[in-house]
Amino acid sequence: xxxxxxxxxxxxxxxxxxxxxxxxxxxxxxxxxxxxxxxxxxxxxxxxxxxxxxxxxxxxxxxxxxxxxxxxxxxxxxxxxxxxxxxxxxxxxxxxxxxxxxxxxxxxxxxxxxxxxxxxxxxxxxxxxxxxxxxxxxxxxxxxxxxxxxxxxxxxxxxxxxxxxxxxxxxxxxxxxxxxxxxxxxxxxxxxxxxxxxxxxxxxxxxxxxxxxxxxxxxxxxxxxxxxxxxxxxxxxxxxxxxxxxxxxxxxxxxxxxxxxxxxxxxxxxxxxxxxxxxxxxxxxxxxxxxxxxxxxxxxxxxxxxxxxxxxxxxxxxxxxxxxxxxxxxxxxxxxxxxxxxxxxxxxxxxx
Length: 352
Hints:
Strand content: under 5%
Number of helices: 11
Number of strands: 0
Order of helices and strands: HHHHHHHHHHH
Oligomer: single chain
Distance between the termini: 27 Å
Largest sheet: none
Shape: globular
Low-confidence stretches: 1-44
Mean pLDDT: 79
Radius of gyration: 22 Å
């Protein structure tokens, strides 16, 4: 797999684990199972990967329906000036809580699970369903908001892209790493830096949209950013589909049993489609928002991350696959500006 992460250079034989955007194969030894002595058995241990995927798709659709309905009703009520906005918002919150609890009750009924066994730990189906429902709520709410108000359209598209990214990451991990999947697979707690970047990007957009409304309504930049976002998400998903169970969010310092070099599918186009997709998705979101500060900030920080990560990874791939990876690297680009230079520079330093 051309996306495997290992050890090399200044971190020889020392296991390095980094949470976040990474394309590494999982190890059978890393698979975790719940103790039979645990007082509460995680609900997803009673399920198959297919059923967990189906339940979470149902949950996000339920959330989207609630979000769409609630926002549409809110807009209708506000236009008629029947009740103040605060009452309308509280009504929407009540609807959310009621729908969430109803969804959990229905799940328990269908699976003959007692409410006493419900747990909201990182490896419980309850936590997955509530999270998927909440993501669906955001999806539906902001779809309607962007439809009603062109003023908020780019911000609504940003929220929708975030929802799709985090939900798809979870689904792919359920499909290919069911034994080790947890709430962390949503990547919502990715890192402090990542969460801070999201907050800063939202803050910049909200401040600038009120100070410079005409500047932010740039349909050309928004359209260009949306194209980058779509390309990034397609390549990110393509990396999962091409590498399958060799793609994970954990970095391993060793070659897994049965690990092969993946050069087909999206890996035929670029040699790190997961990295390529994440890079252009992250930059594209800021172009879509017309955030001049965050466009530069996201580009620089993402580039620095991959300028360190990709050369490091490729050293290990050369150790694992030798001339096969060297040939693959020569004929396949990275697709991120300047990274090829960093790879060559690292190779020169490694041989000197």
